[in-house]
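User: Hello! I'm new to structural biology and keep hearing that structure can be predicted from sequence alone. Could you demonstrate with Amidase? Please show me the input and the output so I can see what each looks like.

Assistant: Of course. The first part below is the input, the amino acid sequence of Amidase. The second part is the output, the predicted structure written as tokens.
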Amino acid sequence: MFGDLGAKDATELAGWVAKGQITPDEALDAALKAVEVLNPRLNAVVMMQEEVARRAIKAGLPRGPFRGVPFLIKDLGCEAKDFPGHNGSRLLANTTYPVDSEIFRRIQTTGVVTFGRTTSPEGGVGTATEAAVYGGPTRNPWNLDHTSGGSSGGAGAAVAAGIVAIAHGSDGGGSVRIPASSCGLFGFKPTRARLPDGPYVGEGWAGMAIDGFLTRSVRDTAVMLDACSGPDLGAPYAAPPLIRSHADAISRPPRRLRVAICDTTLTGQPIEPEVAEAVRSAGKLLETLGHRVEPARPHADMGMMMRAWTDIVGVGTALSIQKALKGRPLTDELVEGVGRGAVAHAATLAPTRYLEAVGEIHAFGRQMAGFFAEGWDILLTATLAELPARVGRFAHTTTDYLAYRMEGIFPYSPFCAAFNASGQPAASLPLAMSATGLPIGLHLAAPYGLDEELIALCAEVESAQPWIDRRPHIA
């Protein structure tokens, strides 16, 4: 039964529930069976709370758009009093929360049946999910020798494998879009502050981090974003208001757009040939839809941005580790190598460096805005510069945090973090497959605040070249 359900998106499953073709308990049974069968190979779903899910069903689910659909939340953020978390770390194992976060509360109003968490790397730092607290790496359903991505790697693997149709994720440097690309899914990063952070966080990584979702369809993301968008009480700032809802935006195609296509990195370096060809093919698809596609790339200071991003995240990681240690020594039994390296790196920075780095991030955002102000509506690139990496390549064993980010991850993922820094909306679409059967994500980014135009374009592309029937063999 779970195999049939895993082929659908959340909107269709909710329709089955609404028509009485399946009950919420039966849908949950199927998801739990899928975990039993698939998770030993994937290591994607952790800390399951079946009793909590059954109680929610018995109490009566909200009459929301996803009523009765099984759901998983990332084991990093999305704090919920009924769902303790490890946060990808042995240091933070079995953390409990006194109240629900605002993002979790809004997710629950859609009627989903949340029954567990998905794996994340320690601190959310990295493009692979291989945290020691989970006993091993999370693997890609398309090829178990490869990573499902990070930091929402468990969410990506669970949705791609058909365990659930939709899952929560978060994105501070590509952490929704990288798993989407790696696992053949749709992943959308909204404009900065489109979704709430409170009450546990004022802003994530100087505003660069935001929640999101891994889905099999654009419409599922659009509906969930509508349910969750808007500032929470006391938010330090808010995204520009939408002209129309995400769901309304995808109901009709966008205007014809001027698209800049870049089949290299944003600094002009070559990317893997098969990936570059996928970018060019996506450009041709947009042309057939009537959009104007021309080669161009922004000349923003990518090196400054990535170093500032690295320092901000290093300081944030060090702060969270030092708070959690509560006076205990920093040992490799508690914190993995990259985390210990982040603490050491943060200690080398001047006390004024954090604010300086935030200023550099803001300057970079202005540079990117200047590029789009030249008349470009969309920037098309790859999501990753290569095919999904093999398991182990980005393990958190090294203590050289700076090299891990600047020399390891940034060449592999040179696109995504730019739009966390600029705050712009961006999406990864599963438009291509490699000759070896691995997904290739294509990345679309739009000007700040224009989420509805970007998601409308994503829906148009999905309609022209559907991907929902493409599934890994394991599913």
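User: So the tokens describe the shape?

Assistant: Right, they're a compact way of writing down the 3D structure. Reading them back into a model, for example: The mean pLDDT is 97.
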